[in-house]
Amino acid sequence: MEFALVIILPMFLLMAGSGILVVSQVSSFLQSSSLNQRQRFANMVIQQYMIQIAMAQSQLYQRSRQLEALSNKLALSNQELAGLNEMKSKFLSMVVHDVRTPLASIRGFSEMLIKKVPGEREAAYLRNIVSSTDQLGRLIADLTDLAMIEAGKLKMEKAVFDSAELARDILPALSINAQKKGVELAAGELTDGFPINGDKFRLSQVLMNLLNNAIKFTPVGRRVELTMRREGRGIGVYVKDSGIGIHPSETKKIFEKFYQAKYQKDEKLRKQGWGLGLSIATEIIRSHKGEIGATSPGLGKGSTFYFKVPADC
Ligand code: ADP
């Protein structure tokens, strides 16, 4: 028994200890080899990403060079376009200037001859010449304004004036036009005594355009009404007619250069204009920090054109 305790027990303990040692060595070897594998895999993935990033960078570089070349080309074409635009504006103002003088003399001599010719027929021909020269004169005035707008030279000469004068100065002549056509032109509320700091000539031009259009697009026997109101720190001017109206899809488009409403079928009316007046009016109102627009319940139901400008524009 004592022999067993002294010899066998230590031997048994020795063997058990060395067994545990071997097992722990083997397991740590296995663990470290799996860690290495994972590390290698992670490195590989990182390397692949780095290659992709390098490729993307070189593509980016190529694209940015292409973009640079394109923007250089664009700058060149912009310069060319600006040059051509200036040439066009100069040409337009030259033509306009050279046409104006002979036109004035054609009109003057025709008016003189109306009183001298013996027959009514000849007088009618001459009146026709006068009204055609008037029409050409209006086109030339519009083209001059357009050339100035495009050259950025349409300057507003602002001064303080009574806003009601805008209407008072032009109503007498327009009433005669309306009467001739058989349309009633009524002036409602005006803004007496309310001062505006703006270009009176240009703002009158806008109002005249709106009223002339209203008379033109309103059939005989119907009515056009002008109202001016104080609104906040400025005025609102409204021209309401009971004319041919505007299709909802065109109430904005008609303010574009050379645009004439397509849903309006009257060719004769269309030929009396060039679709320039409202685009010039838009520019003038923009220069006064104001707003211009039109509303209409629909074709055949009349329309209201308006503009609003601040008192100190
Ligand atoms: P123009 O009258 O010389 O053609 P405008 O720029 O003044 O040019 O007007 C553009 C278009 O807007 C007109 O051709 C017409 O189709 C439409 N329009 C303008 N005023 C009216 C109105 N009071 N009623 C209906 N349509 C209008």
Key structural traits:
313 residues, two-stranded antiparallel ribbon, binds adenosine-5'-diphosphate, alpha+beta, 6 helices, 13% strand, Heat Shock Protein 90
What is the H/E string? Answer: HHEHEEHEEHHEE
- Tally of DSSP helical segments: 6
Percent in helix:
55-70%
Mean pLDDT: 89
Bound molecules: adenosine-5'-diphosphate
**Span between N and C termini?**
122 Å
Backbone shape:
elongated
> What is the tally of beta strands?
7
Unreliable sequence segments: none
Major sheet attributes: 5 strands, mixed
Class computed from helices, strands and strand pairing? alpha+beta
The amount of beta strand, in percent, is 5-15%
Strand order of the largest sheet: 2-4-5-7-6
Using the CA coordinates, give the radius of gyration.
42 Å
Please give the domain count: 2
Please provide a written account of the structure.
- The chain has 313 residues and is an alpha+beta fold.
- The protein folds into 2 domains: 1-154; 159-310, Histidine kinase-like ATPase, C-terminal domain (Heat Shock Protein 90).
- 62% of the residues lie in helices and 13% in strands.
- The chain has 6 helices and 7 strands; from the N terminus they run H-H-E-H-E-E-H-E-E-H-H-E-E.
- The protein has helices spanning 2-116, 120-150, 165-181, 200-216, 267-270, 277-287, and strands at 159-162, 184-187, 195-198, 223-231, 234-241, 291-295, 303-310.
- The strands form 2 sheets. A 5-stranded mixed β-sheet has the order 2-4-5-7-6. A two-stranded antiparallel sheet has the order 1-3.
- The radius of gyration is 42 Å and the shape is elongated.
- The termini are far apart.
- The structure holds adenosine-5'-diphosphate.
- Residues 209, 213-214, 217, 241, 243-244, 246, 254, 260-261, 264, 273-279, 303, 305 line the site of adenosine-5'-diphosphate.
